[in-house]
Amino acid sequence: MAHTYLLVISGQDQPGITSDLLNCLPDEDVVIDVQQILSEGMLTLHLMIRSKQSINALHNDLVARMDNFGVELSIHEAQSNFVENSTDQLVVTVMAQELAVATLSHLTRAILQTGCNIDSIQRVAKYPVTALELRVSGGDITTLRLKLSEIAIKNHIDLAVQSGSLQRRGRHLIVLDVDSTLIQEEVIDLLGEFLGVRQEIAAITEQAMRGEIDFESALRQRVHLLSGTPMNALSEVQEKVTLSPGARTLFRVLKYLDYNIALVSGGFDFIVEYLAKDLGADAFKANRLEVVDGVLTGKIQGDVIDRNAKAQALIRFAQEFEIPIERTIAIGDGANDIDMMSVAGLGIAFNAKPAVQKAADTSVNVPYLDSILYLLGITRGEIEQLNRELGAASFPLGNDER
Prior knowledge:
By secondary structure, this protein is α/β, with parallel strands linked by helices.
């Protein structure tokens, strides 16, 4: 009669432990499941087998061999009707500067309260943020998101819940906002300072924020203040733009994976096109400043890129690159990005205002743009390996060169 056994090995890792364990088992034994984890030099190995041996005979055969390696072995009789975890898995990604034990305790308890089972936990990064990926099964994605978002807000951590299906591994379209997302500045403010009209621009911005004028009116009024500026003078403004930490790493990895990247901005084409070429974006959409005889007229050419136009641009780019809308990711920080994030398969609020975070699927509040890679299941180790393969310097997060 066959029995189902779970073998658990733990201790300091050494070469040959797994190989020696398997060599000790009879050839006719069947492997049902196996999981091996190595962390900080410590090994944990779980091996589930079906065997005709008794548990005592199996224990006697293996314990001495494992003693030679200085690791502990335990054997338990398991359920014979073992089945694979549900294919309807969800992936919970947790990121924090420092992840307290109490926070992880609250999260795991909440996961269980929603009826989910935690199948595995894996660390995907340990610097400069800690990032964990939990695979869970048996739950509803909407219920789990609502439950865990409360804990994330209360404990000041970033958290995302996504489907664990193959869709997550396919090629994606990543659409990024520019001002205060891809770059650290608001370009209209840089222009105002450069041209000596910063206070006038700021006053119009304040009116828009108070709801006294709408986005389009505010933009057109601010652009009017730029009239008479030689277009070639704007190259100085380009030089003042600074990328958000981790932006180059994000682009480098995504391009290597053959993802498509688009920039969509309510800002201005002369900056967005410059960034798209510099970083290798596949497409961009931004407000086009009207130029006559090399001088800005103070008008916008064509329609204004507002929140609806951003959403429509995402849809159009997805069609152009033949990527299902479920595999699109929108990243932004302002109210102008909410429609775009709602349309996308995954909407990410990046260091955004509270109202935007509430509308998004998930929020990232660490200052590193490439932490978004962890939401795609890409580990820090894989990022570093890619840097080595490409011959690039192994940049820590946040220290990408301009």
